[in-house]
Structures are given as C-alpha cells and as structure tokens.
Amino acid sequence: MLVLAYPSYTFQLWHGTLLLYAVLVVALIFNTFLGKYLSFIESAMFVIHIAGIFAIIIPIAYLAPQKSSAHDVFVLFLDNGGYNNKGLAFFVGIIATVFAFAGPDGAVHMCEEIQNASTVVPWAMVGTIAVNGLLGFAMVIFLLFCLGDIDKALETPTKYPFIEIFYQGVRNSTAGAIALVSLIEVLLIFCCISIMATSSRMMWAFARDKGLPGWQYLSR
Asked: What's the pLDDT tens digit per position in 71-91?
C-alpha cells in the first residue's frame, strides 16, 4: 500500500519485519490492557467484514473499465506461475483459499469463556464456514470478472496482484484503491488479535495441565 501511495518509495524486507512487530504489539495490547473489550471488538469486526465485502464489490463492479467474459471466467485456465502444469498450478494456488477455512476452530479454544458453549461453539464454527464460503466464492467470481489487465496485476510493483486489480477497478484512483485495501488491512490486523487470543488460551490450558515449561507461572 505504501508503494502504491508513494511510487518513489523503495520497499525493504526489514520494513516488513518492523510492520509485523508493530501488528504484534497492537495484538498484545488488545489482548491484555483492552481484553475486556475483546468481545465488542470481535462483533464490530464481523460487521465490518460483511459490509466490507460489499464496499469492495459494488464500486469496482460499477467503475471497472474492463470486464472479463463469462468464457474467460469459467472456461479459461492460465498457468502464469511457471509450473508448466495447470493441475499443479491449481493445487498450489488453492492453498491460500484453504487457509481462509483454517480459523473456525478458534471458537473451540475460547469455549471456557462462552456461555452455553456446547451449542454456541458448533453453530459458530458451521456458520463461519457457511458465511465465509459463500461470500468468498462470490468475491472470487467478482474478481475474475473485474480482473482487468492480468499482466499488470502480476507485474505490479506492490507485489500484491489484488492491489493492482483494485487500482484498475477504480479507474486508476490511488485514493480509491488505498481505501479498499485499507479495509482488508484492518481486518487482517484484527485477525492477528483473534489468533493471539486463541493461542494464549491454548497456552494457558496446556500450562494448567502442566504441559509446558514454566507452567507454574503461565497457568496463573
């Protein structure tokens, strides 16, 4: 996003490392000093998550100067990753999609803090997969129809093709693309907060059962 906003900016790997540390500090603050607001924050992020999908789809679907044909979306297969095998390219590419379904078990690790957990947790897990599966599929189809110039997307200086797709979709508006990308960035940051919350509960549970070094301190 910084590369998009400041074309003269030269990204260095250590910049990304510092940004990662900053996100971890934010997650730590929310899980310690602001822990009592965690449930409210999670509810707010759910609303932003659902509303954000439509906030991305609607403007790009309306403004995108170039639309793909139904043939390109549902029939055409490309292997631009250098695998020379479309089947292998498909299975490598689907890893990122599968990762989106790796989080529903997070509710299990929070069950000791949930009222009526035996009912709420299974429904939360199934609902997460159903809602995100349907909305994720809709987002994929939408992106394929509004893909724009795929070569520019793959060669974008931001190193993230979806940012270039957003940029083209809002008719090369830097401000518009940054606004759309910011929605995703905010959600990713709060995903880190949730991951740290579930991880801390797992660590505490293992420590409570004397399964970790230093369990006397960690289980307090």
From this structure: 989 988 888 878 888 888 888
Nearest to 132 by CA among 97, 179, 183: 97
- Numbers of helices and strands, H then E, in the chain: 11, 0
Nearest to 185, CA basis, from 158, 153, 157: 158
Q: pLDDT tens digits, residue range 168-219? A: 999 989 999 999 999 999 998 988 998 888 888 888 888 888 888 888 888 7
Residue tagged 């910011």 (tokens): 182
pTM, two decimal places: 0.85
Residue with tokens 């159903």: 130
> Where do the DSSP E strands lie in the chain?
none
3-state SS of 36-75 is: HHHHHHHHHHHHHHHHHHHHHHHHHHHHCCCCCCHHHHHC
Length of the chain: 220
* Residue type, position 101, single letter: F
Write out the two tokens for 27: 């997650």
Pick from 55, 60, 54, 63: nearest CA to 143:
60
CB atoms within 10 A of CB 191: 16
Closest-CA residue to 64 (of 1, 5, 148): 148
Residues 20-45 as b or e (16 or more Cβ within 10 Å = b): eeebeebbeebbeeeeeebeeeeeeb
DSSP state, residue 78: -
